[in-house]
Structure formats: structure tokens, C-alpha cells
Amino acid sequence: PDVLPLSAPGRGGDDVGPLIHGAADRGRVMSPETPQLLLAHHLKALKLPTFLREYDKLARQCATEGVDHARYLQRLAELELIDRERRLVERRIKAAGFPAVKSLDSFDFKALPSLNKALVLDLARSDYVARRENMIALGNSGTGKTHIAIGLGLAACQKGVSVGFVTASALVHELLEARDEKRLLRLKKQLAAHKLLIIDELGYVPLSPTGAELLFEVFSERYERGSTIVTSNLPFDEWTSVFGSERLTGALLDRLTHHVHILEMNGDSYRLNQSRKRSRTTAPEPSDPTSPNE
User: Fold this and answer.
1) Alpha helices in 97-183 (DSSP H)
2) Could you give the 3-state DSSP secondary structure of residue 20?
3) Is the dihedral of CA 127, 130, 131, 132 positive or negative?
4) pTM score, whole prediction
5) What are the backbone dihedrals phi and psi of residue 144, each rounded to the nearest 5 degrees, phi first?
6) What is the tens place of the pLDDT at every residue in 147-168?
7) For residue range 33-55, what is the model confidence (pLDDT) as tens digits?
């Protein structure tokens, strides 16, 4: 069969033979570090940082264990996938904007026996997000509503869900500012992009009529399109004091509670109890009235 000779003229009559032989000659004098440098370059270009970090160590380990090439590559690929998922979770958590990272593992369920622990753990599976259902945590201040909301948000991030966290007052302020700056539609699209939106501390600050309407629009646009978690220190029958309108409050609750899981979280303030415990442990010993120093 015809074979292209090394001296075949290239475009413009150039001889490609010297180029190929020159490359081969250079290959023979390459330093021992060159393959490693090229491999590092290629792995960086392919965005495989775990491959780059682990391939040499894992190769020596697999050689010691007598592992073949296919299993070596399988282990290396698994390490890359695990590390990539970890980085994705970290990015989702950072993008969510949590005020602190609090997992459900660190929540003291014994301090609030009225809380339905089984329901919380079931919600941590994040199946409700796929069903576009909501969750509302109601209870007095200091009982851990924000902790539970963050914990469920973290669990959702670990399941691949895009999450956003914001307090009700901060969200209303942002909505009003966006409206004034003619970027309200863009902000609403950003909020709608979150599969799970957590709105914390609804009810702590009364809303202006315009702010209440803008917040209602956010809830309304998420109805059966995305999941929302709301925490509030007020029972439902007092939400009118926040929104200032029975009509608006009724329409909001109708949408928010259609597909909802409710956590009742009334009880003693966890923060207050912790402060009392610290005070008792740090209190000075009572002085002896018979002491000569008195």
C-alpha cells in the first residue's frame, strides 16, 4: 500500500521530514522531568486536579498491591469524582449565603421535645424539594428555627440542590432597592433560579405596603415552581400584622400552605437556657462569713 514518505512536500513545497526527525531527536534528549511536566500540563488543561495530585502516589500503591492498569484508572477516576462532588457542594454552600454553617447533627433535639424529629430527618432527604413542597417553622424566639432551616439547606446542597438563604427584612430591602434601580426583574429571576429558597425571621419587622406586595410576589411566583422554607416567630393568625392586609395575607397563606410541612417549635429559648447554664458555672463561690478576711 502507498505510504506517505517522510520527504513528501508539504504545503508550499516544504520538506516535513526534518521536522519529524527533529522532533524525534529532541525526544531522545528530553530530561526525565519532561513527561511529568507535560502530564501535569495536560491534567490541568483537562481540569483534573485530583488526578494530578494522586496519580503518582496511587500508581506506587497499586504496583505494590499488584493492581492492573484498568483498576488503577478506576480508582483514580473515583477519587476525582468524589473530590469534584465535594467541591461542588462547597460551592453550593458558599453561593447559598448561609450566615453560619450549622448541620442537623449539631441540633439539640432533646432541648425541644415538642419538635417532630422524625419529620425533620425525613425533610433532610430533600425529597420535598423535588415535589416543590414548602416547609414552615413556627415558634418563639431562640428555639432553633434558623438552625433547622440552615441544616435543611445544607442537606439540600449536599443532594445537588441550588439553595438561597436570606432574612425577610433583607429580602424586602433588596427588592425595594432593585425596583428603584430598574433591576427588579433580574433579581426575581435570580431568586426563581433557587430550587430551595429559605426566608428567615418573617414577622420580626413589620413591612411597608410596597415591601409586603413585593414579598408576596416572590412567594406567588414560587408557587408550585420551587420550594420555600420560612421561619417565623408568629402564628399564622398574626401574619396580618406583618403584611398589613388581610387580603394579601390570606392569598399568601393560601399559596404557601397548599403543599407544606409545618414544624411547631415553641418552647424555652435555647440561647437563654445556655446563658443561664454558663452563668451558673461561672458564678463565684459564696464567701464564708466567718472568714478572717471579711
Assistant:
1) 117-123, 127-130, 145-158, 168-180
2) helix
3) positive
4) 0.76
5) 100, 20
6) 999 999 999 999 999 999 999 9
7) 688 899 888 889 998 898 889 88
